[in-house]
Amino acid sequence: MLRGMVRVLLFGLISTGCSWAVTAAAERPNVLLILVDDLKPALGCYGDAAAKTPQVDALAARAMRFERAYCNQAVCAPSRFTLMLGAHSTSTGLYHLHSRLRDRWPAAVTLPQYFAEHGYLTESLGKVFHVGHGNEGDPQSFAVPHFGDRVIEYLDPASTGGGQLTREEAYFTNQQLQNIRSLPRGAAFENPEVADEAYADGRVAAEAVLRLQTAERRLRDGGAPFFMAVGFVRPHLPFSAPRKYWDLHVADRLPQPQRRQLPEAAPAVAGKRGGEISNYLPVPESGEVDGDLQRELIHGYYASVSYVDAQIGKVLQELSRLQLDRSTIVVLWGDHGFHLGDLGIWTKHTNYEQANRIPLLIAVPGLAGGVTAQLAESVDLYPTLVELAGLTRPRCSPALDGVSLVPVLSDAGARVRDHAYHVFPKGRLGRAIRTERYRLVEWHKVGDAAVEPEYELYDYETDPLESRNLAAEQPAELGRLQQILATYPQPIKP
Predict the structure, then answer these.
(1) 256-282 CB burial, b ≥16 within 10 A, e <16
(2) Catalytic annotation on 396?
(3) Which among 8, 54, 223, 279 could disulfide-bond with 21, CB atoms 3.0 to 4.6 Å apart, if both were Cys?
(4) Among 71, 88, 118, 130, which one carries the catalytic annotation?
């Protein structure tokens, strides 16, 4: 295995917040970390017959595909913090879009920083950390200046009322944040006849290809291995994608929500209506979507997935052409899921299955691909990549919450955890335990013992659509999962 290629030379050196082993420079694996915004497992390799995703499917054929992978919080900035820190939101206090990593953890050592301390050239392109909503991301995580581009993007002037600054554009560019509601709403979708590079994801893919070519020349001359994070924004709203990707799909043939009502007997705090979707036209301000608009939005999502699949393919094809695939660990990770109208909810920001289940593919040279039912969390990627690179698990502040998935990569039947943990704050904090069969959610105000928690319990074997909260009907199962939840440290207040 790749981790066997690395020799440990020294121990106990101290950096800003972490201790590690220094490793030999030769023959270390490269890392290509592909991040996709708002991507649920709407992929052919995950069994979605409507998806048109040949490039990701080809990666899955040589990777370990995690069928039960979950984000640790279903919103962009916190989810990316959990990935880059290997620590839960409840351990870091980084719960919000506007949360600033260095304000709370100035000496934190992120995943790319840890690799940089071991001689890697670390670089980032596209959406890696969340920038917007008052957040500036984390520029110090990478050795090379970040190659950024747009998240909210339109080419048709009609989509912005003739070129006006829209609400979501303002959010993601940190403009007029105190006046968002006074700004116009942009279009929820557009599909002009343009080249792929007319939109940000096409430009990010093109730049990643150039960076790989530079890396290949550097490696040929004995230079540093790379840790490259490449982030794509589609299928995040607006569903702006070239028309040819819309033409791959027929709206009436795409899957529609099977249940549009919230679960019976669920606490009110758990549900969602409106939210992010309401900032786009022609969605009503209430966020209620049905009929033709529902079909059009779903069409836009699948078209956007096909578009980003093609961009990912350009990067992976260049990796192969340069023969770097022989020495590069490739990870594809979705930051969280997306509701697409199920339970009457659009986008994310819940503790339900559609918002929290993510695609996770890990391809390691020399290891055969496969499919595993191992439950996995975003926080697990930090220790997994560290071990694959032959490095020692760091002792950091904040401490790693993740477990290494390396045993599963060589044996799909191996098990390193029996549940996944995730959270969402909505006035009260919802902490969740997801096992292979059940999900428990505890809604409780942190530090307020006077208020009784409310609970949700879902059985995905008998009720995969989350139609009814069973917390009052299955006290034994509720109690068993409560005992697991009780093993977690007291959460930091949101």
Answers:
(1) ebeeeebbeebbebbbbebebbbbbbe
(2) no
(3) 8
(4) 130
